[in-house]
User: Fold LysR family transcriptional regulator from Corallococcus sicarius.
Amino acid sequence: MEDIAPPPATRLDVRDLRVVLALASAGTTAKAAAVLHLTQPAVSRALLSAEERLGARLFERTPRGLVATAAGQELVTGATRLLVELGDLEHRVRAPVAPSVRLRLVCECYTAYHWLPSALVTLRKSLPGLDLSLSVEHTQAPVQGLLAGELDVALITTASVPPRNGLEARPLFADEIVFVMAASHPLASRRALTREDLRGCTLLTGLTPPAESHWFLTQVFGRERPRLKLERLPLTEAILDVARAGLGVAVISEWITTPHLAKGGLVTKRLASGPLRRPWRMAWRKEVGDAASRLLAALEATVPRGLAVG
Assistant:
């Protein structure tokens, strides 16, 4: 038998990774402590110890809670991947003949993809044979994909789910659409924005489905359909960098803006008429009911902080 080379020494262990992930999701040491079934001082000590061993600050303390630094975000991304791989390895060893469960999933809004991995960590504990594939080709028409049997699960924001037709749907949470612009933008001095403000500026959005564009226009302008100046960009970073350069106003979900706002140069505005809340739902085919129910539970357990549940 060949000698096995010793593994490389690391400064962090699995417990450290779980603490960092819990803090990134919960936003406060108190909420992370509840998730981890630890005391708040224990979580604080664990974070301080991890930062000392790495020689890097992982979170900034702000009035709104903990915000991951660049180093912290890098660790969160890597920790999610490592824990998923470790979980897969454990399940292969413990249950090598576990039946495979296939789920074809799409998110109508691309912002969900940065949140989804944390839910999958939870899901794999109850579905070791999970075979998940992202069917991004159905982003523009998720409900039609479900009805055609080409999808199993969809996270939807604006598309309507017809009753019956072999589909189930449940509410998840509601996020808020906000308007992000450079601090030097002419509208940055306004306390809130009006419909007239939006008519007169360039709006920066993602590659949104027609149903989401229709939802936005209806919520903001009612039956009116004004000619708006729109620039569609494929990446969140691109949208916010263009906004930071003063070339437009980003129309984006508040839940993904925090790390970018921490870099400075941007301000957030809301509508004078009130919050623009967008409901999220999960829809699935009844044939995958058990797996979908487990995924729903995992998603509800990892709802990003600050979002209205249900």
In short: The chain has three domains: 14-83, 98-173+278-301, 175-277. The chain has a mean pLDDT of 84. The chain has eleven helices and twelve strands.
